[in-house]
């Protein structure tokens, strides 16, 4: 951990022993850590001094994790990367978290080292302190509200299709492998069926079908990338 700059991490967890464990883990790795056990207090802290990463439990008093994340996206002036830390591991629960604006998901119980590298990855991925809106040519992604537009036309995306598009946009112009896309949505527990294919199809229907030039490009044998039309 010494080779990277320390992060400012806000840990929001109402289970005292687990919160203490996570805080100690992050501090031992050299990070500056604040903690909260109540959703309303955590939202106030995050808005007053946005952390580099917010580690957020789903079940909280005051505001639950989904409510807190949604309120943060609506009110914060910068994009705060949110790692949801929860025992709820169903696809529906993950979809709700991503729809509220979460950036990553870690299911309890988890390995401490995995939490550390996910925090590091989130801090790099979101280029700390940058505005919510990500613009690539005619594509506009509002990370506060989980909305996307192309050529000023709103895209009707499912939560998972939006998450895939956001990951591709943040990685642009790099080609993203299938395994990376799967990991960005389902973490280390991918579904048994080839769900990625279905969600990429839905993404193409919304992102490309209404327009003359496709943006989602398949790089055979490698993965996927976004191609920006010249016009």
UniProtKB/TrEMBL annotation:
<dbReference type="GO" id="GO:0005829">
    <property type="term" value="C:cytosol"/>
</dbReference>
<dbReference type="InterPro" id="IPR011006">
    <property type="entry name" value="CheY-like_superfamily"/>
</dbReference>
<feature type="domain" description="Response regulatory">
    <location>
        <begin position="8"/>
        <end position="123"/>
    </location>
</feature>
<dbReference type="InterPro" id="IPR001867">
    <property type="entry name" value="OmpR/PhoB-type_DNA-bd"/>
</dbReference>
<feature type="DNA-binding region" description="OmpR/PhoB-type">
    <location>
        <begin position="131"/>
        <end position="228"/>
    </location>
</feature>
<keyword id="KW-0238">DNA-binding</keyword>
<feature type="modified residue" description="4-aspartylphosphate">
    <location>
        <position position="57"/>
    </location>
</feature>
<dbReference type="GO" id="GO:0006355">
    <property type="term" value="P:regulation of DNA-templated transcription"/>
</dbReference>
<dbReference type="InterPro" id="IPR039420">
    <property type="entry name" value="WalR-like"/>
</dbReference>
<dbReference type="GO" id="GO:0032993">
    <property type="term" value="C:protein-DNA complex"/>
</dbReference>
<keyword id="KW-0804">Transcription</keyword>
<keyword id="KW-0902">Two-component regulatory system</keyword>
<dbReference type="Pfam" id="PF00486">
    <property type="entry name" value="Trans_reg_C"/>
</dbReference>
<feature type="domain" description="OmpR/PhoB-type">
    <location>
        <begin position="131"/>
        <end position="228"/>
    </location>
</feature>
<dbReference type="Pfam" id="PF00072">
    <property type="entry name" value="Response_reg"/>
</dbReference>
<dbReference type="InterPro" id="IPR001789">
    <property type="entry name" value="Sig_transdc_resp-reg_receiver"/>
</dbReference>
<protein>
    <recommendedName>
        <fullName>DNA-binding response regulator</fullName>
    </recommendedName>
</protein>
<keyword id="KW-0597">Phosphoprotein</keyword>
<keyword id="KW-0805">Transcription regulation</keyword>
<dbReference type="GO" id="GO:0000156">
    <property type="term" value="F:phosphorelay response regulator activity"/>
</dbReference>
<dbReference type="InterPro" id="IPR036388">
    <property type="entry name" value="WH-like_DNA-bd_sf"/>
</dbReference>
<dbReference type="GO" id="GO:0000976">
    <property type="term" value="F:transcription cis-regulatory region binding"/>
</dbReference>
